[in-house]
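User: Reviewer 2 asked us to show a designed sequence for the structure in our supplementary figure. I'm pasting the structure tokens here. Could you produce the per-position amino acids so we can include them in the response letter?
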């Protein structure tokens, strides 16, 4: 069951936009969309898992400056539905457990360090940062109450998501796989795959019809 949160009178206090662009270039945008759509597809049958991209997360009621905007987030235990922002005090106090950031050339070390510390303090359980220009993936998982770096992410499986990470270099870069082994795909790639599957099904149906017709001919010739 999904829910759609209605506009609140305090929207002026907690605006839905911070005035910053979602991405700085097409590469960063493509990766943000791929991750967010792949996660939405993964949890499409889970009404208690909320997935969002480029959504402001307000974590302290009464303090509109206490906010952060992950490129993608996953909140377990929260219903699906549209939101202008993620206001943690309206979400049962639940902080998103998994957060993704996709870097652009404009990201600064100071900014990313500040974000890391904030996610660490907020209780994020898994934090992944991908730099598509360098093909570099970094990840942290909460152990002993703090985020600690995962040293080897090649083949790493997220405890929360069940997603497998395979870092790579070159134009294709990082590979993400669902628990069933299928890769994350863009909407266009999913449409193309569905069209190919439909073409194969039609071709198989035509072959079956020809075979059935041939068998009927052989039966009639024997009679």
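Assistant: Here is a per-position design you can include in the supplement:
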């Amino acid at each position: 069951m999904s829910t759609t949160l209605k506009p609140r009178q305090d929207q002026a206090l907690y605006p839905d936009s911070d005035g910053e662009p979602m991405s700085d270039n097409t590469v960063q945008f493509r990766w943000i969309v791929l991750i967010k759509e792949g996660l939405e597809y993964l949890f499409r049958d889970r009404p208690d898992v909320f997935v969002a991209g480029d959504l402001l997360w307000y974590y302290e009621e009464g303090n509109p400056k206490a906010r952060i905007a992950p490129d993608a987030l996953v909140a377990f235990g929260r219903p699906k539905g549209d939101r202008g922002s993620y206001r943690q005090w309206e979400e049962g106090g639940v902080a998103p457990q998994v957060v993704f950031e996709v870097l652009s050339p404009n990201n600064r070390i100071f900014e990313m360090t500040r974000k890391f510390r904030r996610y660490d303090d907020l209780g994020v359980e898994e934090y992944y940062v991908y730099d598509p220009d360098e093909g570099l993936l970094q990840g942290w998982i909460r152990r002993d109450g703090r985020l600690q770096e995962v040293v080897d992410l090649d083949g790493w499986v997220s405890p929360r998501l069940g997603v497998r990470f395979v870092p790579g270099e070159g134009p294709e870069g990082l590979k993400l796989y669902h628990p069933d082994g299928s890769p994350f795909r863009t909407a266009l790639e999913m449409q193309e795959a569905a069209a190919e599957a439909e073409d194969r099904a039609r071709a198989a149906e035509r072959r079956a019809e020809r075979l059935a017709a041939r068998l009927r001919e052989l039966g009639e010739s024997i009679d």
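For the response letter, you might also mention the following. The domain at 9-184 is CATH 3.90.1570 (tt1808, chain A). The first strand starts at residue 49 and ends at 53.
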